[in-house]
């Protein structure tokens, strides 16, 4: 019989094996909530525990709205260091969350019996009830990429999380009463020009219908655990003639909002790269007097420096290349957003008075980022 200290040593080895593929994990982003997967505890199924741990991480990476934290922790080591029982109770689970600095994590226990492995998986979420799911499968599944094990992990993640995380979508319209359709399905009605719906985080198609007005539609990315705004204009359906100038104004404002959204998203991406731990490690390869470590000459210099860590340099250069792409998008789309919105506003102001007198509706949609929206509203 192994002592607890011996089992802890083996658990640490399993943790090292599990982290060998950690680079596969999806990176946390404004549209994905992070989950930490703690290396499963076992007394006799170490290969299976390591494989299932990594399979769970891969399954989370592929699940919409979720991402995996790259830190690796072992349940065996954590319970020992926190002086908890082998099977942590509710209080110990909360202390584990504080120890690993995570608001949600998966932990579990496995045991081998003859030709099978069985046990249970748990998802701890701060401020919410714990969810759990039993697992039982053949003991010969010892590789994380085994298709049956990948399927088991994917089903477990779907049951534990309940699907993609939710967010709030606030729809604003110019009409006092309107019907809202999300992804082609009726979602409810707008009262006094506004309504809020709970939907799965991620991209959605929103359409507004109301009597006497043309339908209005927009695509929006809903952020998890946040409120995302979308404003939709509705043009009167009884218009006797097409006001091309006014239509061009709405198109210009809508294009400006879209271009601005792309530019803002690019800025968010550049900021996330600058705070990435891999970029910080890459920055540390240079002396303090080097201001732009992503400059082409500095990239070449660090590649030729045999004293620098090659892996860190390579990862840093890859992040620099990503940053180059998003910086280029900013240079293009910020001016386009300003120009399009300016032209659209000018066309609306100078459109003829017949149509303008019957107007008075919100402008084209704007997509919220970081829990807020970029709302452009004009009334004429």
Automatic annotation (TrEMBL):
Keywords from UniProt, A to Z, are: Membrane, Signal, Transmembrane, Transmembrane helix
A Pfam family matched by this chain, by name?
Answer: PEGA
Q: Has the keyword Membrane been applied to this entry?
A: yes
Q: Does the keyword Signal apply?
A: yes
Q: Which residues does the UniProt record annotate as the domain PEGA? A: 167-230
What is the residue range of the signal peptide feature?
Answer: 1-25
Entry-linked InterPro entries: PEGA (IPR013229)
Superkingdom, taxonomy of origin: Bacteria
Q: Where are the transmembrane segments?
A: 331-349
Q: What is this protein called?
A: Membrane protein
Organism of origin is: Sorangium cellulosum (strain So ce56)
Q: What is the lineage of its organism?
A: Bacteria, Pseudomonadati, Myxococcota, Polyangia, Polyangiales
């Amino acid at each position: 019989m192994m002592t607890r200290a011996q089992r802890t040593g083996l658990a640490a080895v399993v943790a090292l094996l599990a982290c060998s593929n950690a680079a596969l994990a999806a990176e946390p982003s404004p549209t994905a909530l992070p989950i930490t997967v703690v290396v499963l505890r076992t007394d006799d199924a170490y290969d299976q525990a390591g494989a299932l741990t990594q399979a769970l991480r891969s399954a989370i990476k592929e699940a919409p709205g979720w991402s995996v934290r790259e830190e690796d922790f072992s349940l065996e080591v954590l319970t020992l260091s926190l002086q908890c029982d082998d099977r942590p109770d509710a209080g110990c689970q909360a202390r584990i969350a504080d120890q690993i600095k995570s608001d949600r994590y998966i932990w579990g226990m496995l045991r081998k019996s003859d030709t099978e492995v069985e046990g249970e998986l748990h998802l701890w979420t701060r401020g919410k009830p714990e969810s759990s799911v039993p697992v039982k499968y053949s003991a010969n599944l010892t590789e994380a990429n085994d298709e049956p094990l990948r399927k088991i992990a994917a089903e477990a993640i779907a049951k534990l999380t309940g699907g993609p995380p939710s967010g709030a979508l606030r729809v604003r319209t110019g009409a006092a009463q309107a019907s809202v359709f999300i992804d082609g399905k009726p979602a409810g009605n707008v009262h006094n020009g506004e309504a809020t719906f709970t939907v799965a985080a991620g991209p959605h198609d929103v359409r507004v219908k109301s009597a006497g007005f043309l339908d209005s539609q927009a695509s929006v990315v809903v952020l998890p655990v946040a409120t995302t705004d979308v404003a939709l204009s509705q043009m009167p359906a009884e218009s006797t003639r097409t006001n091309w100038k006014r239509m061009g104004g709405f198109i210009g404002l809508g294009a400006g909002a879209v271009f601005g959204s792309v530019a803002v998203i690019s800025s968010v991406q550049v900021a996330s790269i600058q705070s990435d731990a891999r970029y910080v490690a890459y920055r540390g390869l240079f002396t303090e007097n080097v201001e732009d470590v992503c400059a082409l000459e500095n990239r070449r210099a660090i590649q030729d420096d045999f004293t620098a860590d090659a892996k860190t340099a390579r990862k840093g250069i890859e992040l620099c290349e990503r940053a180059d792409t998003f910086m280029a998008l900013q240079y293009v789309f910020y001016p386009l957003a300003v120009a399009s919105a300016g032209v659209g506003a000018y066309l609306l102001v100078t459109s003829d008075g017949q149509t303008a007198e019957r107007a008075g509706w919100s402008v084209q949609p704007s997509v919220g980022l970081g829990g807020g929206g970029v709302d452009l509203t004009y009334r004429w």
